[in-house]
Amino acid sequence: MENFDKAVIPEQSLDRDCQTLSRHVLQQFSNFTTEAQDVSSIMNRIALAAKLVSRRLSRAGLMAGVLGFTGETNVQGESVKKMDIYANDVFISVFKQSGLVCRLASEEMEKPYYIPENCPIGRYTLLYDPIDGSSNVDINLNVGSIFSLRQQQGDDLDGEAQDLLQDGDRQIGAGYVLYGPSTVLVYTLGKGVHSFILDPSLGEFILAEENITIPSHGPVYSVNEGNYWQWDESIREYIRYVHRHEGYTSRYSGALVGDFHRILLQGGVFLYPGTVKKPEGKLRLLYESAPLALLAEQAGGQASTGMERLLSVVPDKLHQRTPLVIGSTEDVQLVESFIQDWARRESEQQALV
Ligand code: AHG
Ligand code: MN
Ligand code: MN
Fold first, then answer.
1. How many structural domains does the chain have?
2. Domain of 105?
3. Residues 304, 268: one domain?
4. Which of 18, 43, 205, 322 shows its CA 20 to 30 Å from the CA of 248?
């Protein structure tokens, strides 16, 4: 008979399998307060939404009515995909009758969605992008979901959600789910950034990496260079700089979550600057840029509009767009230096006129 210590292998794998998302969230709090239990339950519901979306995506090509467009356009004027609507509804369903989240605000809904039965107890709002990178859905490439958790301030009697128009530092937590070869959930509650992988055999998100840190510099620059003709000269100068220097490589998937995840783990910079057609860029502040900015800062990186720290931006409408430069500190600062030097030169020239 083989001579080995039977206890060692099962114990190690048991320890690993027990590092579930819900246990990890509770450990982020020093004691079992109501807030700790609420936030843990909210994260569990988000995990359930992620599992439902992941399940549908994994069988999308086999089922009727999953792929393609609905024929509608959303509040941003973008064509809506069937998966956008499915995932949007999943987030609503998992929070119904939960007593947890009073209000949901999403890319796919013009106004916030109230769950009145939760409101007396659940003073939280979840902002989310149900499917990020939806152009990838029909070709079986990676997509994501992004979420941001905020406390509801005041009573919002007119339903206009004015209280959401605050800076990104107000976020209690944020994260994303990446639906790739495996389903990964990355989150922060303001105490570091942690990643979990969905183990399909357990149906649980199991801890993959705690306290992730972004390298201070990385080779990747991630940007849609097809917009070159539409950019300010400062962004063109930056792109010419990376083209002419050794050590840079381009990666762009068309899904912010996937591109950001690569940079979180390996370093580099993602940018979506303003264009002629979209002067504020394409990405939405409250449920795309701000949650990722919180993750970036928590991981020791940076996020900027090019002119200011992204988390300091106060929006004046729910679906506001913002330019985004995010990733490794040195790389974000390099992009900022091009943008800010150009702005300074322009204002000096105007002063001369
Ligand atoms: P969404 O699918 O939620 O509308 O987001 C798509 C976003 C983002 O994921 C990606 O980085 C960017 O749009 C890609 O836009 P371009 O095709 O203009 O590069
Ligand atoms: Mn998106
Ligand atoms: Mn989306």
1. 2
2. 13-209
3. yes
4. 322
- pLDDT for 66: 82
| Residue 300 Cβ < 6 Å to ligand 1 | no
Residue at 215 is within a domain: no
Chain centroid, CA 67 distance in Å? 23
Q: Ligand 1: does its nearest atom lie under 6 Å from the Cβ of 321? A: no
CA angle 148, 164, 69 (to 5 degrees): 60
Report the nearest atom of ligand 1 relative to the CA of 255: 9
Mean pLDDT of the chain, nearest integer: 93
Sequence-distant (6+) residues with CB within 8 A of 223 are: 239, 250, 252, 270, 271, 272, 273
Euclidean distance between CA atoms 263 and 135, whole angstroms:
21
Distance 353 CA to ligand 2 centre (A): 42
What is the tens place of the pLDDT at every residue in 189-230?
Answer: 999 999 999 999 999 999 999 999 999 999 999 999 999 999
For position 25, which CATH number holds?
3.30.540.10
CA of 133 to the centre of ligand 1 (A): 5
For residue 282 and ligand 1, the question of a CB distance below 6 A is answered with yes
- How far apart CA 127 and CA 145 sit, in angstroms, is 11
Q: Is the pLDDT of residue 5 over 70?
A: no
Q: How far is the CA of 246 from the centre of ligand 3 (A)?
A: 35
- Is the distance from the beta carbon of residue 254 to the nearest atom of ligand 1 less than 6 Å? yes
